[in-house]
Amino acid sequence: QVQLVESGGGLVQAGGSLRLSCAASGLTFSAYAMGWFRQAPGKEREFVAAITKSGDSTTYADSVKGRFTISRENVKNTVYLQMNSLKPGDTAVYYCAARLWTKYNYWGQGTQVTVSS
Question: What would the pLDDT profile of 69-88 be if each residue is shown by its tens digit?
């Protein structure tokens, strides 16, 4: 059974930092590209960042470029999202997801990030 478990969310002041982790089990982690998404109250889920299965290439939403960094450790079956210079607009539930080809096949349960002004 595939599980993606996010952790590291919390409450932080604007300008602060958080590091999210997503631990994967039940799948061959190194075969999957990984992504982070977020959903704010009343809004659609949106793409945040993605990383290839080897970690050699990353992609970011324009809204987080230069502030967030996605990385992965395949030996630990874990993907990370380092979030710096956080803004109130970053407040959302953050989800990690695993993609084998073009579609994200598996999703975590999410972790809440709240940025106060």
Answer: 999 999 999 999 999 999 99
